[in-house]
Amino acid sequence: MGLSSRFRKKTKPRLPDGVRVYAIGDVHGRADLLQSLLTVIDVDLARSAPERAIQVFLGDYVDRGPDSRAVLDLLIERSKTHETVCLKGNHEIFLLEVLKDPARLQEWRHYGGLLTLVSYGITPTMNPSAEQQVELIEGLKRALPPEHLAFLQQLPSSFTCGDFFFVHAGVKPGVPLERQKDEDLLWIREEFLASEERFGKYIVHGHTPVSAPDIRPNRINIDTGAYATGNLTLLTIQGDSLLAI
């Protein structure tokens, strides 16, 4: 799906010459879909050989889907051989908070966190007691590879390239991009989604599932609910051209 000619003529956000960005929406444990898109990117890189290619992942790698552990493995390995930017999502923050406070396990389960436990070989009961919650999180701490924990702790909240601002959830209208708070970058919905404000950069985000990439004059949402729909979106940007597949 490409941008309309009307949109391109009106605003034309651009990347620097020679730069191509590949942005991928919320993965949520779908390692199979992520691997397929990485293969698509590799084929495109081999065919077109851009001067500089940056792969940007918009957060929410864990929870809801079946294989959060494998998703983190893929992203960590990818970063060793390609220029990647892995942004933090609210689900990564929640996982780190549960590691500190096992009492939040019951809340985490509503975010699909039990599937993350299972991906690390931990089988939770349906309604764990307070003592069992502590045991489950202690088990997760033991099962979580050190490189996974380091990866989760080092994720940035946003990334800027040319006229584009990449973020998990969105930005708070009326606040300069350099003064945005993590709470909004990771969690905001209605206030941002309803805004027609030009934010100083064109916002590329996920967080709120849509049936197809939602292209607006000031933003594009590429979270297509991969864990439920089987559709993980890849957005390719070069110059002022955007293509979502």
From TrEMBL:
Organism of derivation: Bradyrhizobium shewense
InterPro entries: Ap4A_hydrolase, Calcineurin-like_PHP, Metallo-depent_PP-like
Gene Ontology CC terms, in alphabetical order: cytoplasm
Superkingdom in the source lineage: Bacteria
GO molecular function, one term: bis(5'-nucleosyl)-tetraphosphatase (symmetrical) activity
A Gene Ontology BP annotation from the UniProt entry: RNA decapping
Calcineurin-like phosphoesterase domain sequence ranges: 20-211
Cross-referenced PANTHER family: METALLOPHOSPHOESTERASE, ZINC-DEPENDENT ENDOPOLYPHOSPHATASE
Classification of source organism: Bacteria, Pseudomonadati, Pseudomonadota, Alphaproteobacteria, Hyphomicrobiales
Protein name, as recorded: Serine/threonine protein phosphatase 1
